[in-house]
């Protein structure tokens, strides 16, 4: 985290290790920067405090990486690396950051985008339209059944991002908001990091919100400067590895030329910075 008092008068004296004791959402290098930023921060502090409480609630969701998907790792004392290796996805593509090997070397600077796929066979991943309409999903089991995917598939590791968004809209009653009634859902997604290397999985929101235009603003300091403001149009689901699968018939997963009229259900936009500084 960057010192929130950075750039105001005196220079920072080191890493920002002092968090605001109330909201916990901002951090400072020193007491003096904390004091000098208070005038700015006091107005946002309470709002951020409320937001951080919600973050905690979201961490308990049934769609965060859960029992059903971790059961093998827990029961057999299997490491994350060997779990991924057995499935041929260790240190591969979107899975790179799912174990410590990848996390330590990952650079968000060169976030892939165009050719991202599941690196799994079509039977193991949701690479095309669902075969049946969505019903209410309460667990990973519901989700896997709906998408006809066997429970041993590791996709939950990556899908917890879109599924958490789905679940959050269910529990917060967002569905009754006017925004979704007009078939538009706008989401502020804060502090993305490894998600930047996994953006193709957000394509699954097409299946989770049929007929809805979903737009996600990804806001965070990890977004590289040169990608600030970038718009990404997710025109399809992340692909499988089967050469003859129907998911290959749609040309591009990403279309950066948003200037052309191409109505897609899911768009993303990247913003470098901190949420409170962008409002
Ligand atoms: Zn600030
Ligand atoms: Zn500072
Ligand atoms: Zn605060
Ligand atoms: Zn590993
Ligand atoms: Zn496929």
From TrEMBL:
Cite the GO molecular-function annotations of the record.
zinc ion binding
Keywords on this record?
A: Metal-binding, Zinc, Zinc-finger
Q: Residues in domain MYND-type?
A: 3-45
Which portions of this protein are annotated as coiled-coil regions? none
PROSITE patterns per record: ZF_MYND_2
Q: Does the keyword Cell inner membrane apply?
A: no
Record flagged with keyword NAD: no
PANTHER family attached here?
A: ZINC ION BINDING PROTEIN (PTHR47570)
What protein is this chain from? MYND-type domain-containing protein
Organism in which the protein naturally occurs: Dipteronia sinensis
Lineage here is: Eukaryota, Viridiplantae, Streptophyta, Embryophyta, Tracheophyta
């Amino acid at each position: 985290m960057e010192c929130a008092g950075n750039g105001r008068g005196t220079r920072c004296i080191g890493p920002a290790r002092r968090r605001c004791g109330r909201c916990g959402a901002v951090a400072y290098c020193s007491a003096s920067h904390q004091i000098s930023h208070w005038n700015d921060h006091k107005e946002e502090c309470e709002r951020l405090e409320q937001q951080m409480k919600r973050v905690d609630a979201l961490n308990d969701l049934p769609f965060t990486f859960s029992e059903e998907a971790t059961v093998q790792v827990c029961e057999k004392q299997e490491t994350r690396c060997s779990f991924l290796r057995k499935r041929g996805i260790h240190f591969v593509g979107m899975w790179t950051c799912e174990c410590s090997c990848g996390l330590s070397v990952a650079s968000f600077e060169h976030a892939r985008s165009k050719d991202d796929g599941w690196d799994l066979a079509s039977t193991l991943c949701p690479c095309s339209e669902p075969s049946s309409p969505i019903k209410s999903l309460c667990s990973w089991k519901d989700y896997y059944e709906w998408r006809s995917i066997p429970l041993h598939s590791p996709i939950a590791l990556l899908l917890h991002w879109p599924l958490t968004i789905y679940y959050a809209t269910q529990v917060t009653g967002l569905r009754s908001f006017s925004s979704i009634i007009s078939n538009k859902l706008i989401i502020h997604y804060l502090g993305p990091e490894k998600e930047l290397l996994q953006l193709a999985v957000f394509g699954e929101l097409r299946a989770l919100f049929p007929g809805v235009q979903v737009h996600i603003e990804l806001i965070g300091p990890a977004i590289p400067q040169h990608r600030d403001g970038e718009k990404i149009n997710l025109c399809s689901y992340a692909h499988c590895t089967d050469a003859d699968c129907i998911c290959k018939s749609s040309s591009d997963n990403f279309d950066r030329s948003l200037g052309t009229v191409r109505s897609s259900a899911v768009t993303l936009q990247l913003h470098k910075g901190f949420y409170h500084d962008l409002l």
